[in-house]
User: Fold Transcriptional regulator with PAS, ATPase and Fis domain from Sedimentibacter acidaminivorans.
Amino acid sequence: MKKRIAVLVIEDKIGNYFLEELKYIFENTVEVDYFTPNMINKPFIYETDLILYTDPSILIEMIEYIKCSAPILMMKRTISKQSVEKLRKIDSDKSAYIVNINSFMANETLATLYSLGIKNMKLLPYYEGASNIKNVDYIITPNEFECMPNIDAEVINIGNRVFDLSTVLDIIAYLNIEKKLSEKIIKKYSLKVPTFWKGLNSTLYDKKMLAGQLDVVLNEFDNGIILCDEKGLILLSNNKASQILNISKEYIEQDYLKNLLERDTILNVLLKKDEIHDEIIDFSNKKLIVTMKKVIYDEVYFGKLIILKYYSELLINQQKLHDKLVGKGYYSKYSFDSIKGSHPKLMDAINISKKIAHSSSTVLLLGESGTGKELFAGAIHNFSDRKNRPFIAINCATLPENLLESELFGYEEGAFTGARKGGKMGVFEKANHGTLFLDEIGEIPLNLQARLLRALQENEIMKIGGDSIINVDVRIIAASNKDLFEMVEQGTFRNDLFYRLNVFQVNLPPLREHKSDIEYLINYFLDIFGDRRSIDYSFFKFCQDYNWHGNVRELKNTIEYMLKVSNDSLKVENLPNYFKKKESLSYNTFEDIEKIVLGIIESRAKKGLGTGRRSIYEEFCKTYYKISEKEIRIIIKRLEDNGNIVVSVGRKGCQISK
Assistant:
């Protein structure tokens, strides 16, 4: 059955327009009637699903004729994208009357234009009965020709104002339009109009993209994923969850979890209020590992995330995970020549590493993320007597405890359910007579630390499920970006393991402590990427002022980003957005900001553009960081007082003085 809409308008012409427009938007799935105050024998409105009105005066006149409890919605209206583009092309410093049939509609149209970014001219409202008529350059009207002022001005007809997209969304919600048609309407209509709702077009596009990307990402997981809201309604799931539960995805989503679980009571564990971590249950003759986490933000509970995985598949995929997580194979491509820089602190670290390379004792590399710990580990190995033996790197933070233990020590066939035939060799065995690099050593759980300590002390291991000792000759290089000594004091890292690892300690300096290497590193990365660019002074100054929390890795990523997003020289304008804040750019003095403002004026002058205070403010905020218009006014005044610029009234604005 079609939904019904009643539209309250001032005259028949507008009523017919909205009648056709609504039928077009909703593809004749709605019935539309319009009502005006001057109708002969005004009909009462008894049955309708939604009432729309154009302005408050119409609703006040018609309210006594509304005899139903349907929701009442005032339309938000806008103009077409074509009309917006036409108005944006008008030269600055012009003026225009915005004409409409009454004060409310004239002012509403004016506000609409300002909201859509029409700021290149002064806009004035005009309606029947308006006084103090002024001479203006343009008359802008949405087909309201009868009440236009009698002055010599160019008329721009922007056509009937159309529904703003936010109003279309409201109508969809009130009428409960089905999902597929809603998406089709929004997609089609968002191409037609700009919107009051700032950024909505972008938001809708981003949401559609995000939904598609999320669907792809969820289905990339080997685990079943289910996301519920705070009431237990299932919002999202993936194909793996459908396979495990043997229920179609369309029946899982938009149903309640408790209804889903009626099929198999063993899954009632998912209704628990507490979180679940890797609980194993028997489900459909297979062992299923269940994890359930609460989704909490700002101490508000929004629902829960459920992760389902087959125990057997976890073990079958273990070898595939091993190839990706154990580093880059059984060798390292790094040498001490791979470490770029000449600062004394960096050279000290290199020299110490060379001296200790030939020893078989444990090395502990300490440094922040991005300082090159794996690079140093590989260089030490390749400088040592073990260089022709295996080098294996494993990141202790990337594996859960049960997998990490089997990765380190291996397991025997039949050690646990799903253990593969023939068992598995651990990295201690694989690195025998070579070097084992344990990155993020501080992430190893306490109970596993004891087993690692024994392996280091005795040079022997025992596989999970095994009963025989395996002797190993492995040189350990460990690394951490955490303060292990502090962890020892807090009881989260074993004292005896720390001192066992800390035979030779090498401290890798953060980039902020060897900034003299930055220029060399930038040029080195430009060579690596095969894209030589000039380096603007503003960017070089930024590099020297910024603290580089991500160290050399962050610098490399920044260079790569700038090369990809722009063909210009390396300059502050092309930095990733997260850098563009006052504390990062360190332009805090008036002298710094004066230079930037002069640069903006000069750059715009070369392009033949006038430069007023507003354009300086907008370009400064876009290129550098958020600054107040008051600060810009002060800077302009200082530059003018010092004779650096000439400030003219009108389009020219500010100009560099002779």
In short: Confidence is low (pLDDT under 50) at residues 196-201, 321-328. The radius of gyration is 35 Å. Residues 200-220 form the longest helix (21 residues).
